[in-house]
Amino acid sequence: MIIDQDTQLYGVVGNPIRHSLSPAMHNAAFLAGGLNAVYLGFETEDIQACLKGMKELGIKGMSVTIPYKSEVMPFLDEVEDQVAAIGAVNTIVNRDGRLTGYNTDALGALRALEENTELSGKRCIMIGAGGAARAIGYILKKKGVELTIANRSVERGISLCKSLDCRFVNMEEVVNEGGDILINTTPVGMTPNEESCPVPEKVLKRGMVVMDIIYNPLETRLLATARGRACKVVNGLAMFVYQGAEQFRLWTGREAPIKIMFEAVRAALNSRDL
Fold first, then answer.
1. b/e string for 140-178 if b means 16 or more Cβ within 10 A?
2. 273 falls in which pLDDT band (50, 70, 90)?
3. Which helix (H) or strand (E) holds 133?
4. What's the pTM?
5. Do 216 and 152 fall into the same domain?
6. Does any domain span residue 1?
7. How confident is the model at residue 274 (pLDDT cuts 50, 70, 90)?
8. pLDDT digit string (tens) for 213-261?
């Protein structure tokens, strides 16, 4: 990769951001496509100022992660229709100084889940009520899934349930819920807190599909426990790469080199384990 005055700049914004493997994934994709572009991590406590800098510096595209997926919306010039319904943004495209917000989390989660189970008519317990939960809950409802949300913040959980027209339960009540699918959308269990698990073991029933959107580590405590209880497990790698592939398409107008993106993320994870 040669960096020069024509190099286009992309990045991911959040706080914290150092754990993100988005730079490894997208830089591999840019290199494979022969694109003069580079992708960096931007950690900030002021998302409004960051987006102003994005415009002023001509940064072409940005991924948005915790905690800014909903907070970023008032500072964009426009959002796609699906974003307005979801209420969260994870992708920004800068077109001649106008910032447009998209959500590729929904597509990424859907593709990862549909590789492992039929969704229509299933019952799903979703843990969390943040930006990723909004996107995943939206697409699950569109697919005919009966959705129940559990969250530690009751106020935030109920608010999301009202927008998605689904049930809310307290975290303490999750053990009494039955479901075909359980999805963790929280950072509980993410590096460096790998020993944490978002739900008690007895929530995990034989035959349940258990998905954790965390990709670092690939086998979270939740997934390891679920595997031990004869559940079908889905780690966060597929959702992460598939949502990244859609970001790549939005930014470049090209189809993403998905195989290379998978390989780059796996290599980055392996190098961190050494």
1. beebebebbbbbeeeebbeebbeebebebbebeebeeee
2. low
3. helix 131-142
4. 0.91
5. yes
6. no
7. very low
8. 999 899 999 999 999 999 999 999 999 999 999 999 999 999 999 999 9
Tens digit of each residue's pLDDT (9 = 90 or more) over 42-53: 999 999 999 999
Query: Pick the catalytic residue: 69, 122, 162, 202?
Result: 69
On whether residue 224 sits in a domain, the answer given is: yes
- CB-based burial of residue 246 (10 Å sphere; 0-12 exposed, 13-18 middle, 19+ buried)? buried
- Provide the β-strand partners of residue 148: 125, 167
3-state helix, strand, coil in the chain (%, to 5): 40, 20, 40
In this predicted structure, what is the pLDDT of residue 84? 87
Note if 69 is an active site residue.
Answer: yes
Q: What is the tally of structural domains in the chain?
A: 2
Q: How many residues are present in the chain? A: 274
Residue-wise burial string across 211-224, b where 16 or more C-beta atoms lie within 10 A, e elsewhere: bbbbbbbbebbbbe
On whether both 72 and 159 belong to a single domain, the answer is: no
d(CA 242, CA 31): 18
ω into residue 200 within 30 of 0, thus cis?
Answer: no
243 secondary structure, DSSP code: H
In a domain, 2, yes or no: no
**Domain residue limits at 41:** 8-103+239-273
Whether 3 is in a domain gets the answer no
71 and 168 inside one domain: no
